[in-house]
Design a protein that fits this description.
0% helix; 4-stranded antiparallel beta sheet; Methylamine Dehydrogenase, Chain H; globular; 30 strands
Length: 388
């Protein structure tokens, strides 16, 4: 294969007008061209994914409340073996998480553990019991909102669940939706954004005890702003959070300074949306995909309803943010956003129409459309694969 080409995998999600599926593509890092290779699946509703090039593994979330045959409310993680020459994905196993809506999957820096954040919902189940005096009492239990850790074998397959934390325990099990679990550049911290309660959690992982240790819990904005994704600066002690909810017609990104012991300090909250742009009334105004360039100079966040990619410059001395561009995204309901391995291009994916579009990143961080790729209806999440 041409040295400029890398493989790209696109999940399709059967929600909000999307359809199920998983597709394989090549991406040309020289000109941004996207070419279809094969359809891997068109049956399952897939969303977040992660590729471990060290073990040639693709982990894809089957983000559903319940799948046919499941004994309880649960999603799954599909694990594929990737051929380093052809990029062909062969299904290896399916992991039942026994928790609804697995939303974000990643592997720790050692390659020994898989982390999964579940975007659960406050589903109540009534349990009726007869008391000693003969009266019937009702107890309502709620689905858990888990952050799970699985041990992996040498091949990268999950072996067993070794740790889980339920944020719902803090909120009566009603409003906790952990949406991501992101490792810091040092690998010592795990950042979790919880859309339900509005907090940013920082954890460490004790490899001897196989336990997560909570270091800090910080409100990212207003309590109902629904923090969605976290990205870390590659070198500076900054991290950034985007939000699914908006208010006053604005879409805010929050910048934090952090320390390795988990302490955080809020730097600023900046609106990513140009208020002069038209906004669709048929779609909720919300942020979706969120990435940072490899040098940590610019942030890119997708905004639904306005259908734009917002570009924000990062002040390297203070971590403060400045909006510098809102670029229109072709398609309906933009959701997925990924930056190419060489840092020269960004690719967006639209859920309803399935449009895949690449954009070249200029030296000043601004974007210009490069190539319109094939259409994959339901396109929701993008992962790149560069065999080592």
């Amino acid at each position: 294969m041409d040295k400029n080409l890398v493989f790209m995998y696109v999940s399709s999600w059967a929600e909000h007008g999307g359809v199920p599926g998983l597709g394989q593509y090549t991406f040309d890092q020289q000109n941004g061209e996207i070419r279809f290779v094969r359809q891997i699946s068109n049956k399952e509703s897939f969303n977040g994914s992660y590729i471990d090039s060290r073990k040639n593994k693709l982990y894809v979330n089957n983000e559903v409340m319940h799948f046919m045959g499941a004994p309880c409310s649960s999603g799954r993680i599909f694990i594929y073996d990737l051929d380093p020459v052809s990029g062909e994905a062969k299904e290896n196993m399916r992991l039942v998480t026994e928790c609804p809506n697995p939303a974000y999957v990643t592997v720790d820096p050692t390659g020994m553990y898989l982390f999964e954040a579940h975007h659960s919902f406050p589903m109540g189940v009534a349990v009726h019991r007869r008391s000693a005096d003969g009266t019937i009492e009702t107890e309502v239990t709620y689905a858990e909102a888990d952050l799970q850790v699985y041990s992996l074998n040498e091949a990268g397959n999950p072996v067993r669940l070794v740790e889980n934390v339920n944020h719902g325990d803090e909120t009566g099990k009603k409003e906790a939706h952990p949406h991501c679990a992101v490792f810091s550049p040092s690998g010592k911290l795990i950042a979790v954004a919880d859309k339900g309660n509005g907090f940013l959690y920082l954890y460490s992982f004790d490899y001897n005890q196989k336990r997560l240790r909570l270091l800090s819990r910080t409100l990212t904005d207003t309590g109902n702003a629904s923090p969605r994704y976290v990205v870390f600066h590659p070198e500076k002690p900054y991290l950034f959070v985007n939000h699914e909810a908006s208010y006053d017609g604005k879409c805010y990104v929050t910048a934090f300074r952090y320390e390795e012991d988990g302490n955080v300090e809020k730097i600023c909250i900046e609106n990513a949306l140009d208020q002069s742009l038209p906004v669709k009334k048929t779609t909720r105004l919300e942020q979706q995909g969120f990435v940072i360039d490899p040098e940590g100079r610019y942030l890119y966040t997708l905004i639904n309803a306005a259908d734009v990619i917002a570009v924000m410059a990062i002040d390297q001395e203070s971590g403060a943010l400045t909006r510098i561009q809102n670029l229109a995204v072709p398609g309906n309901r933009p959701r997925g956003l990924a930056i190419s391995p060489n840092g020269r291009y960004i690719v967006s994916a639209c859920l309803v129409g399935g449009e895949l579009t690449s954009y070249e990143i200029a030296k000043d961080g601004t974007l210009s459309a490069a190539c319109q790729g094939p259409v994959q209806p339901g396109a929701s999440y993008i992962s790149f694969y560069c065999p080592e």
